[in-house]
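Contributing new records

If you add data, match the layout below exactly. Sequence lines come first and carry their own label; structure lines follow with theirs. Keep one chain per record. Anything else will be rejected by the validation script.
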Amino acid sequence: MKILVATGNPHKFKELVHILPATLKNGTQVKYLSLADFDNLELPPETGNSLEANAEQKAVFAARATGLPALSDDTGLEVDALHGQPGVYTARYAGEHADADDNNRKLLAELDGTLLPERTARFRTIACLAMPHGSVQTFEGKLEGFIGFGYRGDNGFGYDPLFLVGNTKKTLAEMTEMEKNKISHRAQAFTKIAEHLMLLKERK
């Protein structure tokens, strides 16, 4: 069975493949593909006004374009002191062509002078499974924490070096892959998808 993980980000693809099952409960082997396995397959621009809309838009497009079940997600970082920003604009907080460093620097600048207890934030992931025949399922994961005062850790990507997890005193980028996959917002959402996939196969 082939399933497309509709991302061109190799870090995200690696993270998700470690979460998703290699074998379903009925013994079916699963091979996960990324956008890099297809020539000239590019996701449409994110035009939704919510994480749910963006995740569904990408998964449905990928499923229709390839004829394969497709997984996609959209993740938002919601910072309470910034009234929930960057939210749906998390990936392009510093502009359409911004990279992770640009986004992180802008976030730190926006929170300059804000004390740690007031830097509460959460990652929220909406993951979507779209089937070629048209059915769509969405699943949510959430991780609470704080925005730190600078970069810490060499693992992860995006805002991981800034995000202090709950009361652990560690950023996501200071955690091992195993530690992160036990608690992360993305892991929660995609674990639910994995369970859903196995139940679907069992009912057939």
